[in-house]
Amino acid sequence: MGKVSTRKRGKTWQYYFQLASVNETRKWKTGSGYRTKAEAQAAGTKALAEYNSTGIAFKVSEQSVADYFDYWMEHYVEQELAETTVNTYKKRIRLYIKPYIGSYKLKNVQGETLRNFLAKLHRTGMSRNTLTCIKGMLTSAFGYATVQAKFISVDPSYKLTLPNKRKDSEVGTRKENHIFVEEDMWNAIIERFPEGHPSHLALMLGYYCGLRLGEVYGLTWDCVDFENKTITINKQMQEPSGCGKWLLYVPKYDSSRTVTVGNNVLALLKRTLEFQLTDKETCGEYYQENYMNYDEETHSLLSLNDLRPVHFVNAKQGGLLAHPRNMQHTSRSIHGKAKNCTLISEEWDFHSLRHTHATILYEAGVPMPLIQKRLGHINIQTTKRYTDHVTKKMLSMLDEVINGDNIDNNLE
Question: What one-character DSSP code corresponds to residue 81?
Answer without folding.
Answer: S
